[in-house]
């Protein structure tokens, strides 16, 4: 008499009187079934196809199995789903659902030319690595090249095309952050503030929309090259919206004569942080004393706001309006200053200019953290700086796609202001049984998925905006 058992089962600790066993025989189950929502956004907005047109393909098309659009889509979709490195794609290429997200017409991969590739619908790590390093001049060795000027313009045009209506005023936020380096990458420098070898990328946002992600070496001033980027971005915006009012917002690292003079010459308003000095503090000494008395009496932070005109002794070419915050908190004075050319006719009080307009720029830092942490913008492990720039742009494209999902599908839901990581964990990471036939790709989502109503609300929102989905 032989016991009826499955030889491939492996066991875990018992649950009472029950055995707990497992086996890898569940069929083709994907853990990223919720990515179908992301694919719908990509297809209906046409963002990934437009982004892929920024790459030039010199390959002999008779031997091409992965188009540039499919490669770009595979790279960006992988980042959105949490796969930070191209090495991950050597396993993802077996997943027919991931192949569906990437637009592969044969998601099973059975029609591949070579026998060794059958069952692997998507490109492997080596092919994707060549895509990541394709920036530069054509030299006969590289068969795919990135057009850097078109990529830079793409992000601005995507913002203009997807922005609802014609705004009367927009605010462009400027900031820099660090991409820490752990090798001997081209252009590495030690930065004293961040206490590491790093790059110093420049970001420009308009609200939640990314307009610029420029990789720079860490030995430059934070405001280096900003006027050139603004000249390009503002020009594209005004070609579409001729009469829009534009305000530039940044911290004291951008308080430079060149930038302020450029804004004044091009009809662009600015509101920028101003580093304190003894002359500025002396101007508000009386207000600091009054704040100190109030703080000692109440034990709460006390602050006063005032406006005056100021000019540096050497660096500024003219008097400019300064807003000061004379604050006393935690037993010490905390003066803060900003400089602006916003006209008084707008009737902003000094307090409104500081608290409502300038301090709102802090939200941009959350967007940068979101891209750096959850879309892997800080992964700069290529030896050449140009390749790391392209990696940064792929991450930026992932952010643009995720932001469009948030705007179109999640408005009015609990995830309307969620980070990319939260969206990924709650909406994308769903177990699904995938079955590929001649006529369709059928995905049976997990019955135990806890956010079913949220998923369906997102799906219905996409369906309402694009009825052809049904």
Polypeptide structure, described:
It contains 16 helices and 19 strands. β1 and β2 (18-22) form a beta hairpin. The protein has a domain at 29-146 and 386-469. Helices cover 38% and strands 20% of the residues. The longest helix has 25 residues, at 385-409. Strands 6, 10, 11, 12, 13, 14, 15, 16 and 17 form a nine-stranded mixed sheet that branches. α1 crosses α14, α3 (68-80) packs across α14 (385-409) and α7 (148-162) runs parallel beside α14 (385-409). It has 470 residues and is of the alpha+beta class.
Give a quick set of tags describing it.
alpha+beta, three-stranded antiparallel sheet, 470 residues, 20% strand, nine-stranded mixed sheet
What is the gist of this entry?
With 470 residues, the chain is α+β, with helices and mostly antiparallel strands. The chain has 16 helices and 19 strands. The protein has helices at residues 35-45, 47-52, 68-80, 89-92, 96-101, 125-132, 148-162, 226-240, 257-265, 278-283, 285-298, 350-358, 362-374, 385-409, 420-428, 452-465, and strands at 10-15, 18-22, 29-30, 55-57, 144-146, 169-176, 179-180, 189-191, 196-199, 202-206, 209-214, 245-250, 269-274, 302-310, 320-329, 332-333, 336-340, 432-436, 441-445.
